[in-house]
Amino acid sequence: MQVIQMVLHTKNYELSLNKNKCTGCGMCMEICPKEAIQVTRTPKKVNEKAEQPTVTIDENKCHYCGICQAICPFGALTLKINEKNASPVTDKESFPQLLREIVVDQTKFGPDCLKIKDACPLDLIEVKKAKGKVVVEIDKDYCPGCRVCETKFPEGAIHVKKVICGSLRIFNEKCPEGCSDCVDVCPIPDVLCLSKKGNVEVNETHCVYCGACKVACPEDGALELERLTIRHTEVKSGAWIKALEKVASTAAVTKELRKKTGKKLKESVINRMPPEVLDYEF
Fold first, then answer.
1. Rounded to an integer, what distance in angstroms lies between the CA atom of residue 119 and that of residue 147?
2. Other CB atoms closer than 10 Å to residue 33's CB: what's the count?
3. What backbone torsions phi and psi does residue 126 show, to the nearest 5 degrees?
4. What CA–CA distance (Å, rounded) separates 95 from 225?
5. Mean pLDDT, the chain, integer
6. What 8-state DSSP symbol labels residue 112?
7. How far apart are CA 267 and CA 276, in angstroms?
8. pLDDT of residue 276
9. Which pLDDT tens digit goes with each residue over 92-114?
10. CA geometry: angle at 42 spanning 208 and 18, to 5°?
11. How far is CA 169 from CA 182, 200, 253, in A?
12. What torsion, rounded to 10 degrees, do the Cα atoms 16, 21, 26, 27 define?
């Protein structure tokens, strides 16, 4: 756990990074307006697997705005003001919250589900028996939506939507010989794996497009990651568009702008309608 603090006359700010939840994906660094966060490739030890990227927060640069907390797909950052959880940017509606949509149908879980111990690669699911029934509990605040759990439990028992959708490509011709760093650091098993020929293969079914693989990759241009959509609550502030430009593709920004323009046009049309039209039931 890394904790930084800023103490003022009436307020005490505290930002903590849970290193057990953090994957070193780098989204917080990309989006930080004060460049207070650095995510770097961890030096690899001889004959050992690559370790997750290293995250450091500069307390002299941090303004405790909460943007890093709001964008983290793994919920690894927590901001507190006077010892209470806070999110200034979302409270002021200048930044959205990530949408973590998980639907659980408890009626579909039978006794066999008690044997499932590895349903979630991030250890966010607890399976227990309560009042004679099997109950599945998911810690939704930390879920990036990899959807691995959907394949472990009975069909239709759990439905998850990815928080981030995108594209991930590996250019094996540019990869250093024998390198598997991206495979080693990926938080979701089987998204990246080595073929019999030693090439890195991608299975995007469960990829959450966090970017840990990109940070860990030692060769520029060997890996291409694009975040095409980020599911979030509605927000009117232009600050989100500027932030989106840093972490997502041009296509994602264009889509967001069109969506925003469409809403404004709709509101404008409704505001121009006479009361008798608005009251009419179609």
1. 10
2. 14
3. -120, 130
4. 23
5. 89
6. G
7. 17
8. 54
9. 888 999 999 999 999 999 999 99
10. 60
11. 12, 10, 21
12. -80
Write out the two tokens for 23.
Answer: 């994957």
> What is the percentage of the chain residues whose pLDDT exceeds 90?
70
Structure tokens at 268: 């404008």
Nearest residue to 6 (alpha-carbon basis) of 57, 56, 71: 57
Q: What is the pLDDT of residue 265?
A: 43
CB 146 within 8 A of CB 208: yes
Q: Are 60 and 197 in contact (CB under 8 A)?
A: no
What domains, with CATH codes, occur in the chain? 2-91 (3.30.70.20), 102-160 (3.30.70)
Question: Cα separations (Å) of 156 from 118, 132, 139, 188?
Answer: 18, 21, 19, 21
pLDDT of residue 281: 52
Angle at the Cα of 16 (from 13 to 22), degrees rounded to 5?
155
Dig out the tokens for 103 from the structure.
Answer: 């639907």
Q: How far apart are CA 244 and CA 264, in angstroms?
A: 19
Per the document, the length of the chain is 282
Q: What angle do CA 63, 225, 79 make, to 5 degrees?
A: 20
Q: How far apart are CA 11 and CA 3, in angstroms?
A: 16
Average pLDDT over residues 140-160: 94
Mean pLDDT of 38-46: 89
Parallel/antiparallel/unpaired status of strands 54-57 and 200-202 = unpaired
Task: Specify the pLDDT at position 45.
Answer: 84
Q: Which tokens in the block code for residue 67?
A: 């943007």
The SS3 assignment for 282 reads: coil
Q: Dump strand ranges (E) for 19-69.
A: 37-40, 54-57
Tokens of 59: 């307390």
The CA distance from 184 to 213, in Å, is 8
d(CA 208, CA 274): 47
Write phi, then psi, for 194 (nearest 5 degrees). -95, 135
